[in-house]
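My current task is to audit a protein record that another person submitted. What it holds is a sequence and that sequence's fold in token form. Thanks in advance; the entry in question is below.
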Amino acid sequence: MTAIMNLLEQQVAVITGAGRGIGRAIAMKLASAGAGIVGVDLRVEDVEKTALEVRGLGRPAWAYAANVTDAPGVEACAEKILAETGRVDILVNNAGITRDGLLMRMSEADWDAVLDTNLKGTYLFTKAFTRSFLKQKSGRIVNIASVIGLIGNAGQCNYAASKAGVIGFTKSVARELASRGITANAIAPGFIETAMTAGLNEETRTALRKQIPLNCLGQAEDVANAVLFFASPGARYLTGQVLAVDGGMAM
């Protein structure tokens, strides 16, 4: 247990979308392994709740508000983070949204909102911290994609395109940065119990379970465990990989 608690000792992790759900679970998991946590979300009051929980574990935590689609805002946020923390060792691009609908009815605004948040946001935050990673000659980038980016889904062409883009982006970044000791990997969650799935009726949930060999929805901690692995010393020799945390759905 002590080894796990000290796995990320003296490291700092930046997590976007850390105010709730999977992002909060990732923050708590990395903090439990010893990392200081920088939480980023649209509203600082949301992410401050996560920061308070992290501090309750005896780990340092910072809370920042930023819109991941706003390039100047992301750059300014990254500069403030680096000035306050001194360094960043781990970047988890988790912020994401859905705007579901069939292609023939999907508005351009819904397409743009999903691509901007899920894909452009990942690009902007990764770019903002790349220079500091290069100077350190170290860094772990973990991007939260989705099983939908691997297999597609009716009514989610914008979401599928954004998450497939995250996977391609991750592989390209991995190739660009590998020579400097920086890894980039992606996690593709399946259907996870979050606020997004809480409103599903039992008929829909039953239909979802039939698509999953393990016959249950995942928990946010399942994704957080995978992030911890990619951020840990044990993943030193892994880069450009996509790990599906989906109960076997996409195999």
Notes: Residues 2-245 form a domain with the Rossmann fold fold (CATH 3.40.50.720).
